[in-house]
Design a protein that fits this description.
The complex is a heterodimer of chains A (33) and B (431).
Chain A lengths: L2 H8 L2 H20 L1
Chain B lengths: L15 H19 L12 H23 L2 H10 L3 H26 L1 H8 L2 H13 L7 H28 L4 H30 L4 H24 L2 H10 L5 H24 L1 H8 L2 H12 L8 H22 L5 H18 L3 H8 L14 H19 L10 H26 L3
The chains are: A mainly alpha (33), B mainly alpha (431).
Amino acid sequence: MKHSRVAAILTDVHLWVPLVVLALGTALLMALR
Amino acid sequence: MSATTAAAPPRSTISLHKLGVFCGLAAAVWLGSAEAPTKLVSAGFSPFLLSMGMVMGAFVARWTLPTMLKGTEFLYHDLRERPHLIVWALVGGMLWAVANTLTIFGIRSVGLAIAFPLWNTNSLVGLFWGWLFFKELRGSRAKDWLKVIGGAAAIVVGAAVLVIATVQQNAGATGKTGIGILAVLGAGVLWGTMYIPYRKAYLSGMNPLSFVTIFTFGELGTVFTLGCFFYGGVGPLAAELQRARPMLFWPFLGGFCWVIGDLFQQYAAKYVGIGRGIPLSNTNQLLGLAWGALVFGEFSGLSTGGRLTILLGSIIMIAGAISISMAAPPASELENWRAASQRECDRYGLNQEEVTAIVDGDDPATEQKRTRRWWEWLIVASACGIFIWLAAGTRVQPIAVNLPWMIALIAGALVTLGLCGTLLWRRTRFS
């Protein structure tokens, strides 16, 4: 994958929002177990 | 071994909005039916084992169905054209896996019939992300806003009515009920956010069948990691799976059915957007209620008032979903959808003309002749072999079911699959 494409991925808000929600959801799962 | 696809019949001219609506309804039927095997949780099996069984079944389905429908050559070409979306497909799969595990906690605490409508609030989350990131509803008329926002509000009200009913019916076990509600609402947020990868992929011209083949690695890897964490390693997890072997066929089958519903949902998200398509597919609550009430007898111990409350909440939620689905996007909103697609093309160097054709259901690659590879037959044969192996060692679980109703619901799901699958093929060639 080209460097510019990697940079576009890493700076895309469409990626960071799902990642934050995923982290919070995993934390909830750990708390409920 | 090789074969070439035969000449296809002429294309259907049905509108993409209607097609998306039909896909959403078919998704509802199959997503609703697929959750029934998780009822086995009440028979004393671990939620993680059930989740893992479903995900393993989903993994098999997410490779087998795309291979059967499009072939590995098409899938590889599609992924090579848009490699950045592999990241989003993996993240989407991870979100699905965590959400699915949370729902199994929820089902254990509050029951299938109650858990269903609560996690279906994911449509509200998806609606918000669709508006914020993909310009859904931007440029639409006031009456369309009213239909969509009114529908979304109705879903919230319906969910609230069901929560009240849940608390009343579980008096004396409020701690457990609270955990169950928290788990399924959390799952709703995760699933609602999972639609960001969906919509992004389809506005970029990716085929839903390609998307799910990568998506499944995210979900299987996450569930396996969670399983290892909770059981203390691979060895104990494998031992638990071996112990659960007699019941593993059912969640495996549920995962396979889930993928059929999920594929229809993916096409609904592609052709009518996540703000409209997801609420429509979330009427799977109806099927969840039908399975819970008619097949498993979940309402047998409830008072008439409790049943009416659940029925009222369900009707309000469904009315909201219908209202949203009837708001066909006007030309001014479709311009905003194209702008969102343009953003993806500019950012990732995609061919705008080709992407526009694919988004409109006319992928030029679907018209190209393709050759069946030997490994495609191997993939299908392996999937069949796994199912036969699991079915051969399956014991009847100690759960009472109403057989006539079960047969009727299964037959209805198969008819829906045949009709909607044919329509999708005739209009888009599974584009």
